[in-house]
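Hey, can you fold this?
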Amino acid sequence: MNSKKNVIIVSARRSGTHLLTDLIVNNFGYESINYNYIDYPKFTDEMPIFKSLMYEGGKVTWTHAHDFKDYLKYKHSEENNNELDKFFSESKIILVYRDVRDTIASCYHRPRYKSKYKTFDNFYKNFDFDGYELTDQTYDNTFELLLQYYKNWFSVYMSRELLGLDIEIVSFEETIELYTETVGKIGKFLEQPTDDIVDIRLPNSVDKDVIYTTNDFRNGKVGDWVNTLGSKLGNRLGEKYYRDLGAGLDCFIGDIKIHKYHYPERSSFQLNSRDWKSLEVKVDKELKEYEDTFAPLPIDLENRYEEATGRSQDFRYIHKVFHYDDKILKFLYPCKATLEKKVFDNVIPVASKEQLLTIIKTNKFLYDNGITPKLYHAGIHKGVLYAFQERYPVKNVLYEKHNFHPEWGNYDWVTDMGYRKALISHFNKAYENNILLTDIFSVYNCALDNEGNLKYIDVDGIKQYNSKEEMIASKDHKHMMGILEQINIYYRSY
């Protein structure tokens, strides 16, 4: 058996599937299976062939499956489902994404589509989603399909540790424009040397030995969408894409400073940022005192997909938030930015335990004072904090209720929507007890209960301090005081 782990490329059609396949084949000596066997509706018939190839190792294949674990929707045998789980968990996965506008344009210009739809408008509104037959939803247009596609798979990437996946993310644009760097990035991920780089970008006559897995190229240009979509439609789609996906992904990957009172998180979760081993010993000792705090968890965490009645609307939480009849399960990463695997494995389980202790110690006070929903259970799963708490309808979360997505750093809504009194009251009650509610002034972290009372639902946005002095000396205190000042200035001038 080849010692190289298999590679599964996840991509939307016309977004760089063969570009990445060819890069891996030519630069790292993998063999392309060169067929999308991971086509879940008909997978059962092709399982023997696929299994024999994958068990050899050193293979690269791909899938356009609309969602992670889509195969559970179909009537495969339990054995085949287990095999699919095994292939995903034991392979290297690369998610490649492309500006959706260029993807749409490339799909339209594909001969078999262009001849069918005649005009772009007809294609855009009536595309039958060829190659996305796994979808169990309807979409108004091609953009909405791709938007949901990336919501699903970006969420997988952002939840990879919890899902037990070894996954990297690469953009079509960086592959085209920063090729050498991209080969290096992929080589590091695959744990393969990158001594002699072979350039596979578009077929060329210079290197006759380059292996191409398709001849279905058009031009591979970045930004060519403007010639098909036009600037008006293209700019509108670009703005919506960034608001719904791009901004969150930028924060996760780039760990950017999003407003004057925010500070990036990655530096606080590094191996040398704290004595994590000593902290874990201390926290474990304290947690023993609360071993009997909760009744047994009434759900199976491993089978959360099957048991849940729905999933989050926010792509960052699709694989982290699960709804039940009157309760909700949340998995909460202490760091909101991506971390290297070694750092994550050594830091996040400890940081998760620390936050668990905070939640347990503050829960009764916050609930009794009407600040937070009822918490039924909390713990650690695969090194990640989880909370099982009272569920409020999504429509009751402030951003959904008001259909409002404020710009980063805008807290005018606190006054404009009439929530200032309730939010300040919650904040002050906690503050008087040396508790900081670090994200309470967020339309995404507050909801109305069934009686119309405002509640803070962000259980990981809670910080507790041993004294007032310790709290005042913290970075979070400085951050919160800046936000409060901004809210109060606007309120006085309102």
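Oh, and this one too while you're at it.
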Amino acid sequence: MGIIEKQSVRNLILIYFGVALGFISTLYLFPFILTTQEYGLTRILLSIAFITSEFAHLGVKNIAIKFFPEFENYNQKHNGFLFLLLVIPLIGFLLFLFLFFIFDEWLITKYSIDSNLFQEFHLLLIPLIFGILYFDIINSYVRANKDSIPGTFINEILLRVLLIILLILMNFEVINFRVFIIGFVSCYLTQPILLFIYISSKQLLFIKPNFQFITRDLITRLSGYGFYVLLGGISHLIVKNIDILMLGSISGLTDTAIYTIAFYIGSVIVVPQKSIGKIAPSIVSTHLFNSNINEVERIYKSSSINQLVIGFLLFTGIISNINNIFEILPEEYSKAYWVIIYIGISKLIDMAGGVNGTIIMNSPYFRFNLLATLLLIIVSIILNFVLIPSYGISGAAIATMTSLFLYNITKSFYVYLKYRIQPISVKVIPIILVSIILICISFQIDTIMSTYVDIAVRSILILVLYSLSMVYFRISHEVESYWEKILRYMRFKIT
């Protein structure tokens, strides 16, 4: 088992645990403890912070992955690479502060339609952006050193545990919303501090610069690459958050909260993509640097099919239990029914593309990513602007689904033109058919006893039938391998 497979499995375990924690907070805590306006505020703050931090790092997050092989030399303390990663984003953060105070009044006006909460707490954007910014930077450095686990643990597990604690404290009136939102931001500030402690413990905290290593040619290549990936990264993040931002400005914080819950549920299926994405970029970058296209193709195809195998399993489980989900949530969230379906389909489309974006970003053709993403932004803004006023949160979801489809088709076609490799095979057909059949069967079965018993029974049946089908059709070598390990373990336990 290669390093991608090993760390992907470990990341997958951590992320799934994080998903479980996320489900607890998203379905059982946030909707019942916070008002829709309060919850909507947290989502708006995060969306703005994620986009701004993507701008503020000035391309350094991607530079860390692509250029680390050139700097890598432990005995030379990686030639001062970490120093560059820490200093350059500071410039971007200061630029953000300047622009923030210029557009302060515009932001307040834009996001105070149905509540004054944004006006009251919008200054918390400053520490929130700083925390997200430097967590991403330091995490990229750790990932470049072929270690994706610490960042995954901090972001997927520890962060959610801290947020759950805050919600419980608020539920029992130990703290009020003001203290909660300050604690909410503090959790994101804690993340980079913990990563600093980690890299120090691993003796990777090399902050002394090595100006002799930094040549004019290197600066030119760093800045050129950084400029394009910066714009591409910003554009991609805008696309990921444009629906929430436009909903917040058009419909208000209440619809934003409802959409966020539905989006989270529909996005659960993206877990395998996230696990692979933690380690794949550094590996793909190394293979492209060494012109090992055959290995890139292997990763490309395996990432697509393995993501789809797990993604369709989760999609099938969610859709089969969709009525049960709305039995759990407060009544006002029932309007999000179709949002979950549309978002789920959009994530499957994104997963089908495998690591197409990673290949482009770490290749000599990285500039194309900017063009593709800018076109995506235009399409996404137009669709959201047209569909949200007419269809509300469902319109935002349709816009996201359509935009991601066009985006992935464009990227996959470009990778094929340049490298003559593509991720899709005929194995996708039985995956889709099995998923459709299981969903149709599930809809014919009445509720079994209580909501929670029904969820458990449906989920177990789907897991067993789907897994057996994947093994029967020999969809994925990795799936077969893990299934065999499970059977051997069970046989050992029985005997």
